[in-house]
């Protein structure tokens, strides 16, 4: 890197820290301002923050591994979550905003009551903050360490230490106000850098025609082909086609973020109102899948031409930065990767600390203390989380495998997180058993049967966990009717709640109309068509599959019209529902 590159990275770091300082006072009013920006975020800030925090420096490394190691279609490992993302937007975003919780874990006590629900809240806060959250941060730190190692050299531990210091210093300062505002700037910088790298990579590889010729048609397919012989083929169940089917039909709901995911839910809860919560979630999914996919994919394909012999596919992305970018673009791209890293880590630390502060420390260990006391505790928990994460990052060797493990690890919990919104019967024991079963089964599979293909691991963990949590649901007592009535009155969920609605009607002496879930399901289908249509339409045009590209864009337009109709039917056009 030249002097101009280093100056750009240095200027970026100074500017971001100054921006964080501007919001320090606003972020430290109380824990609500520190963790939720006082619930005043407009949709475009909340949604862009969702995009920025879900894209870190690990993401382009992960996508590069998928494309170089198998093909473009392997991105269905994360494209499949667009289906769940649209489900969250059209069916759950308004419900989360109505719940008015600080964390998604707090919902458990609201939904199940203060008995087993209180215990579940404690268990899940620790599980999410100390295990799920730190695993997620570990691969982000690992990715940053790999980037630092490629660009500046040095051992892996040096990269981990540098990345850790960057994360903790900024997260201490900013609070959630600083997180979301700087996320907007970080997203723009990261996207500019990613597009620039794609442009220079195509030029260095001799143009798209040459890239397409070297990659070959199979690697460019958006969907894998069915094996010859179909079910009669002995290798059918371990084929890429079955993996694709699992991704689109099971994985999106059989994962720990099936109801939106903690970081996204945090931003739904921080939005001004229901309208802004929905708008933020819709924009997040459009930008996350439709806009961000292709710069990474193009660079990965170009690296097959420029760096054909590279053994560690994950390092191809930072190697392309050094190989094809001139100054000062190299500095802009590195600043973009640092921005992506910081936007994710500052969120993860703030989010994880919110669990330990609100759901564990404030609820169990030290109730009734001052807001200043809880803010100090929040920063102490950030130090604990980053210390655990740094140790994990040093032990992890592959960003891609860590990401896949986390998907599988929580595969048994996803159905319960969805059903608790649309059916009155699940109770706290449903979640406790699902969480325990998913943890035990996934650990056993990874330890005893590591050779099982990843998609089949997801199926085994999801189905195996269901064999435990479904019986537990019916063998334990239902949630107290008073708790269910209060929850329904507060969130007004659709689905199988007729018994609760009838009890509420009897209590108030007035009929309680059932929300029209069919309209929301229509919106979900239309929104999914919109997001996937934009994603694959742009991909088809970029990969010289023009007819398919325009067909997908036509599907996107149709889906957009349907989503617009849903907004009208739901009262989200023109008004400002609270």
Strand content: under 5%
| Rg over C-alpha atoms, rounded to the nearest angstrom | 23 Å
Tally of contiguous helical segments? 27
Query: Which overall shape is indicated by the principal axes computed on the Cα atoms?
Result: globular
CATH topology group of the domain at 1-33 and 43-229 and 260-391: Sodium/glucose cotransporter
Through-space gap between termini: 50 Å
* Element-by-element helix/strand order: HHHHHHHHHHHHHHHHHHHHHHHHHHH
Secondary-structure content class: mainly alpha
- DSSP strand tally: 0
Largest sheet: none
Give the CATH architecture of the domain at 1-33 and 43-229 and 260-391: Up-down Bundle
Mean pLDDT: 87
- The CATH class of the domain at 1-33 and 43-229 and 260-391 turns out to be Mainly Alpha
CATH superfamily of the domain at 1-33 and 43-229 and 260-391: Sodium/glucose cotransporter
Helix content: over 70%
In the predicted model, the low-confidence regions spanning at least 5 consecutive residues are: none
């Amino acid at each position: 890197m030249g002097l101009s590159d280093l100056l750009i990275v240095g200027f970026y770091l100074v500017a971001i820290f100054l921006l964080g300082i501007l919001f320090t006072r606003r972020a430290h009013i109380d824990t609500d301002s520190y963790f939720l920006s006082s619930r005043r975020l407009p949709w475009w800030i909340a949604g862009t923050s969702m995009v920025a925090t879900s894209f870190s420096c690990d993401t382009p490394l992960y996508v590069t591994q998928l494309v170089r190691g198998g093909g473009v279609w392997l991105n269905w490992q994360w494209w499949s979550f667009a289906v769940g993302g649209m489900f969250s937007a059209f069916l759950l975003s308004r419900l989360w905003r109505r719940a008015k919780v600080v964390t998604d874990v707090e919902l458990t006590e609201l939904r199940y009551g203060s008995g087993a629900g209180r215990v579940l809240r404690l268990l899940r806060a620790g599980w999410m903050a100390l295990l799920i959250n730190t695993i997620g941060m570990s691969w982000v730190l690992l990715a940053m360490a790999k980037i630092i190692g490629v660009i500046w050299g040095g051992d892996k531990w040096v990269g981990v230490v540098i990345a850790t210091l960057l994360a903790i210093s900024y997260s201490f300062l900013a609070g959630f106000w600083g997180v979301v505002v700087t996320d907007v700037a970080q997203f723009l910088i990261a996207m500019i850098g990613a597009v620039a790298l794609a442009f220079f990579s195509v030029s260095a590889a001799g143009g798209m025609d040459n890239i397409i010729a070297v990659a070959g048609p199979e690697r460019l397919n958006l969907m894998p082909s069915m094996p010859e012989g179909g079910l009669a083929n002995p290798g059918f169940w371990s084929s890429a086609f079955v993996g694709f089917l699992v991704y689109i039909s099971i994985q999106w709901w059989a994962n720990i973020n099936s109801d939106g995911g903690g970081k996204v839910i945090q931003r739904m809860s921080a939005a001004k109102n229901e309208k802004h919560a929905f708008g933020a979630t819709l924009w997040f999914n459009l930008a996350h899948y439709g806009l961000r996919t292709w710069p990474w994919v193009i660079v990965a394909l170009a690296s097959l031409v420029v760096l054909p012999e590279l053994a560690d596919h994950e390092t191809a992305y930072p190697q392309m930065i050094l190989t094809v970018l001139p100054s000062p673009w190299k500095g802009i791209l590195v600043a973009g990767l640092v921005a992506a890293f910081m936007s994710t880590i500052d969120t993860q630390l703030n989010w994880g600390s919110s669990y330990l502060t609100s759901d564990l420390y404030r609820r169990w260990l030290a109730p009734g203390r001052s807001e200043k006391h809880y803010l100090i505790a929040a920063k102490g928990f950030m130090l604990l989380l980053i210390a655990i994460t740094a140790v994990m990052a040093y032990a992890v060797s592959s960003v891609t495998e860590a990401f896949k493990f986390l998907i599988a690890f929580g595969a048994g919990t996803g159905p319960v997180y969805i059903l608790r919104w649309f059916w009155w019967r699940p109770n706290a024991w449903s979640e406790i058993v699902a969480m325990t079963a998913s943890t035990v089964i996934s650990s056993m599979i990874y330890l005893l049967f590591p050779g099982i293909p990843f998609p089949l691991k997801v199926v085994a963990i999801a189905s195996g966990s269901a064999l435990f949590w479904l019986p537990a649901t019916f063998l334990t007592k239902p949630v107290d009717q008073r708790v269910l009535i209060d929850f329904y009155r507060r969130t007004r969920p659709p689905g199988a709640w007729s018994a609760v609605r009838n009890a509420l009607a009897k209590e108030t002496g007035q009929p309680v109309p059932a929300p029209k879930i069919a309209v929301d399901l229509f919106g979900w289908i239309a929104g999914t068509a919109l997001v996937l249509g934009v994603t694959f339409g742009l991909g088809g045009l970029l990969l010289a599959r023009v007819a398919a590209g325009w067909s997908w864009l036509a599907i996107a337009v149709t889906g957009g019209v349907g989503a617009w109709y849903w907004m009208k039917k739901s009262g989200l056009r023109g008004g400002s529902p609270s």
